[in-house]
Amino acid sequence: MSTSASSSATGDDDDDSGSTSTITAETTTGRHELKGESYTRTKGGVGKFIDSVTFRVGGHSWYIRYYPDGNRDESADWISVYLYLDGAGSEDDGGGVKARYKFSLFRDAAAAGDGEAPPVLIHTRTASNYSFWSADQHRRGYCRFIKATDMEEATKGGGFCIRCDVAVMKETCVETTMADSVTVPASELNQHLGALLDSKVGGDVTFDVGGEQFTAHRYVLAARSSVLMAELFGPMKENTMSSIQIDDVEPRVFRALLHFIYTDSLPEIDGEDEPGMAQHLLVAADKYGMQRLKLMCEAMLLKHIDTSVLATTLTLAEQHDCQGLKDGCFKFLRSPGNTKAVVESDGFQHLRSSCPSLIEEMLVKVAP
């Protein structure tokens, strides 16, 4: 994978001159599988874990840590899985490693009595971005990967496989400079606006969110959201107030919302917190009319779809007019066995009572 940027300047004599910088991002990929003959035989209590053997990807050693009964009390009814970097990064890596990972759970169909059928994918979760791994941050994964009851139902007492796909990135920059050329750097507007938000310099409006105070700039907010434009500069009471109370958004979600408004990007979100943050941010994005952020949240939620959360996600998609998210949910339901598991989930009763018309649409879209 590679990306490049170039710039050029023309002098009075109309001779073209310029320079080109090419950034080559070398990526090495690999995978490892941790297999078990039976899920119930691996259970040993909360906090008890099983490690895979170490495996090499991108010049580094890794291993999978699997908690059949969850890694702590809060995840006692779940299976927890983590990818560990075995040792800190080398000096060539700046003491760290940039990597991305994906966990997938398969059922051994043959062991479950389905003849010579290939393994069946039960559940998968993918990290949204490349993360920085170091001696201080040497593990990443999910404390709530899949519910234990869903695991037992899906494996049917047979064998299973947890597969971890790893991609390790190492960036190299090669630059050629020509005489009499002018190099135009990439835009730093998002960084400058992000620094302005953090510094609070020139802030002229404060938001009180769950007891936390957030200082911002009216013109920046208005430029990014038509809803905020109306609230801050239209014939509404907020346009004369220096402090505005927000009661329906959590502080951590509002902080991420402001970060997006100023930088057009999301802050780094811990993998375990990503689905919940995406749900809350989607609601906030819909409230403030921020379509790009809303679509980014839909994409994040689709990466974390499984039978335990699909009904809740489908309800959210219906309530906030997220057609792409709905279509992704319907596609997931077409996979064998998924519809039955979703109907038996806790969130399905809420879906049926809050969005009865969606049940009819679901039957039409999912029916063979």
From TrEMBL:
Q: Start and end of every MATH domain? A: 29-172
User: Which GO biological-process labels does this protein carry?
Assistant: protein ubiquitination
InterPro entries, sorted? BACK_BPM_SPOP, BPM1-6, BTB/POZ_dom, MATH/TRAF_dom, SKP1/BTB/POZ_sf, TRAF-like
Q: Which pathway does it operate in? A: Protein modification; protein ubiquitination
The domain of life for this entry's organism is Eukaryota
Pfam families this protein is in? BACK_BPM_SPOP, BTB, MATH_2
Q: Where are the transmembrane segments?
A: none
Q: Bias regions of kind Low complexity — which residues?
A: 1-10, 18-28
Return the Basic and acidic residues bias intervals.
Answer: 29-39
> Which residue stretches belong to region Disordered?
1-39
Where is each BTB domain found?
203-270
Q: Which SUPFAM superfamilies match?
A: POZ domain, TRAF domain-like
- Which PROSITE patterns does the protein's record reference? BTB, MATH
Family the UniProt entry places it in: Belongs to the Tdpoz family.
What name does UniProt use for this protein? Putative snRNP protein
Organism field: Sorghum bicolor
Please name the taxonomic classification of the source. Answer: Eukaryota, Viridiplantae, Streptophyta, Embryophyta, Tracheophyta
- The protein's gene is named SB234M12.14
